[in-house]
Fold:
Amino acid sequence: MLSLGKRNRAMSSTNMNERSSRSHVLLTVTFTSTELASGTKVTGKLNLVDLAGSERVWKSGAQGERLKEAQNINKSLLALGEVIQALRAKQAHVPFRNSKLTYLLQDSLGKGSKTVMLVQISPLEKNVGESVCSLKFAQRVCKVELGPASRRVDSSAQRDA
Structure:
């Protein structure tokens, strides 16, 4: 499964990075546990997401297909930022449907979920703008309160036993 994903991942060279991700990667692992005595089923989901970094188009030198990829990456990261802002402000409507990424992650970003974010930044001085932008985004994410994680129990499986 991982090798299939690796083959389908778009990578390319830009002025900023010789091996630049041109897409996000999302690996979802769903697991179900059944308590033998009661038959109660508990389901969990783990999403591992590697976000392609945002780029300043003028700095990356992206043209043609690379430019379209950069625009799509930036658009989905903007949509993720809008979701984070809506969650942080506890808005009634959270715009999960504004991108495929946020749509796929909506049950992991909503109430009753736990989310951890790791940020990789560049040590190069020439990339300080992108690094600061990434750190500010992570700071906004840290301020989101999703509430306590909840168990997802399949009560119909319990009744069928």
Observations:
- Strands lie at 11-12, 20-21, 25-34, 41-50, 153-154.
- Residues 117 and 142 are 8 Å apart (CA to CA).
